[in-house]
């Protein structure tokens, strides 16, 4: 009897620990947990000084509200030889979809570099390489590394230095509203879902 | 110093725990050492601490205090304890646990406190269990470790935000190696009784 009770207790404690680690058996990775947490509760973003590809200095929140469109944000660095290229071509497809469906008045693309080596010139070069149209797809990089790190933290982006002066980082489409809220995180393989989420949020905001 | 006394395992426990904590930065810098060095060290610290405690109690309680089986036990055949230890082991196969242990103090506390406790329970339970029960839980842990290792190897994407893809493959290889070496080591330790059984 005691033995059965102890067995049940051990089972409950162990399963409880697993339940806690996997956020109620729903996620196995920190990336999954990040996406789920944002979907359940959108996060207000802290501000960070940024520079654009045209060299203008502003802050992220000022840029978001001045533009007024819902932004699909992703993070990159211009020297990237792997993931950002895949991410870039997905974003290019997204740009085409926005243009074809006439959504450019409501939704835009925003790529933010976390690499301190990326200045206005590198951003402009990268934009050219990606065939970005200035109206639909804009590029920013952090002017202040500390504020940038705080922002990455809030987004849940972890940048790990890798060999050959590369970085590895988690990549996704982040849907951000003009009032500076991170509302949804969508997998890179589902650009259509990111666009739909952005359109829905724009409709909610009454644009 | 008496080699059978409580001191050798106590010192080993302290050493394992100190190494796991003092070198936590280099040990958690890569996924493979995090999973296959730091976490096992923390478990071993618990196992050794339990041995030290038992040796100390035996000495304090005179002859046979642990040799005389208690009238009843909450941990009969060690099965509740082994079940608990297995489930804690499963927790640390989840990539999110490794990521969170680096950034979330609660998961870090679960690691540095929970793993030695699980190790203590594991040691105490192994002593109470018989060969059949041991084999069941060892086999269970090994297939889990092997499958998780294969998944780590097979994933084209990173499972941990904090670790590189190459390192994930190393951790996968390590888990598969663990699932082969652990039963081999057990067999080597138990070779005498197995040999005796075969030559009956």
Mean pLDDT of chain A: 92
Radius of gyration of chain A: 20 Å
Low-pLDDT stretches of chain A are none
**Share of β-strand residues of chain A:** 15-25%
Order of helices and strands of chain B: HHHHHHHHH
Radius of gyration of chain B: 18 Å
Classify the helix fraction of chain A into a percent range. 40-55%
What oligomeric assembly is this protein in? Answer: heterodimer
Number of alpha- plus pi-helical segments of chain A: 7
Structural class of chain B: mainly alpha
- How would a textbook summarize the main sheet of chain A? 8 strands, mixed
Q: Reading side by side through the largest sheet of chain A, how are the strands ordered?
A: 1-10-9-4-5-6-2-3
Rounded mean pLDDT score of chain B = 90
Task: Please tally the β strands of chain A and state the result.
Answer: 10
Keywords:
heterodimer; A: 207 residues; alpha+beta; eight-stranded mixed sheet; two-stranded antiparallel ribbon; 7 helices; 10 strands; 44% helix; B: 200 residues; mainly alpha; 9 helices; globular
């Amino acid at each position: 009897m005691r033995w059965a009770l102890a067995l049940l207790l051990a089972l409950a404690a162990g399963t409880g620990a697993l339940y806690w680690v996997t956020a109620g058996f729903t996620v196995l990775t920190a990336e999954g947990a990040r996406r789920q947490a944002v979907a359940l509760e959108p996060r207000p973003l802290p501000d960070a000084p940024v520079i654009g590809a045209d060299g203008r200095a502003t802050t992220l929140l000022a840029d978001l509200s001045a533009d007024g469109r819902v932004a699909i944000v992703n993070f990159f660095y211009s020297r990237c030889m792997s993931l950002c290229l895949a991410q870039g071509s997905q974003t290019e497809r997204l740009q085409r979809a926005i243009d074809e469906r006439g959504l450019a008045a409501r939704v835009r693309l925003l790529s933010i570099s976390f690499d301190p080596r990326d200045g206005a010139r590198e951003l402009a070069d990268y934009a050219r390489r990606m065939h970005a149209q200035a109206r639909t797809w804009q590029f920013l990089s952090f002017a202040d590394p500390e504020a940038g790190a705080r922002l990455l933290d809030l987004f849940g982006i972890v940048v790990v230095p890798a060999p050959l002066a590369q970085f590895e980082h988690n990549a996704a489409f982040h849907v951000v509203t003009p009032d500076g809220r991170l509302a949804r995180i969508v997998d890179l393989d589902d650009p259509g879902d990111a666009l739909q989420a952005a359109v829905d949020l724009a409709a909610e905001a009454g644009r | 110093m008496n080699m059978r006394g409580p001191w050798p395992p106590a010192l080993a426990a302290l050493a394992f725990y100190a190494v796991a904590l003092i070198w936590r930065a280099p040990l958690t810098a890569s996924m493979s050492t995090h999973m296959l060095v730091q976490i096992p060290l923390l478990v071993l610290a618990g196992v050794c601490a339990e041995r030290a405690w038992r040796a100390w109690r035996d000495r304090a309680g005179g002859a046979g205090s642990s040799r005389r089986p208690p009238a009843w036990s909450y941990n009969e055949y060690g099965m509740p304890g082994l079940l608990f230890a297995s489930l804690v082991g499963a927790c640390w196969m989840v990539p999110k646990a490794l990521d969170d242990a680096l950034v979330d103090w609660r998961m870090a506390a679960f690691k540095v406190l929970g793993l030695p406790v699980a190790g203590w329970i594991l040691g105490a339970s192994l002593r109470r269990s018989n060969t059949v029960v041991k084999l069941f839980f060892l086999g269970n842990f090994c297939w889990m470790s092997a499958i998780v290792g294969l998944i780590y190897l097979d994933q084209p994407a990173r499972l941990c935000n904090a670790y590189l893809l190459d390192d994930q493959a190393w951790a996968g290889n390590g888990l598969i190696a663990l699932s082969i070496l652990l039963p081999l080591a057990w067999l080597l330790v138990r070779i005498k009784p197995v040999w005796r059984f075969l030559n009956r």
